[in-house]
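In the laboratory, one determines a bound structure by crystallizing the protein with its ligand and collecting diffraction data. In a computational setting the workflow is compressed into a single prediction: the sequence and the ligand go in, and a structural description comes out. We illustrate the idea with iron/sulfur cluster.
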Amino acid sequence: METYEQILEQMQKLSEGERKQKMEEMTKICRDYCGKCPSYEGTGETRLLFCGTGKSEIIKRERGCLCSECPVQEMMHMRWIFYCTRGSAKEQLAKE
Ligand code: SF4
Ligand code: SF4
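The predicted complex, in structure-token form:
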């Protein structure tokens, strides 16, 4: 089975355009999870895809996280949560 680290390597081999398209697809999915998450709603945050792009400048309180239910989490074989407050998957991996 592939690991997040292997998927990350594959992502790095994509062209700029392909990577951008993938990020857009994942952001659309994220909207249904982060966008509806109790830690996100009502904070005024508009950014998404914290698993890829890192912490929110706005979200500070962890009130629950829907990442473990998100298809992107499964697609990328990620294994962390609270990307908006704890950092991107890459950052959380580096802390292990
Ligand atoms: S990363 Fe998790 S806690 Fe943060 S907004 Fe997304 S689903 Fe909610
Ligand atoms: S894993 Fe979390 S941060 Fe990443 S796309 Fe899904 S809901 Fe958004």
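Residues 16-31 form the longest helix (16 residues). Keep in mind that any predicted model is a hypothesis to be tested, not a measurement.
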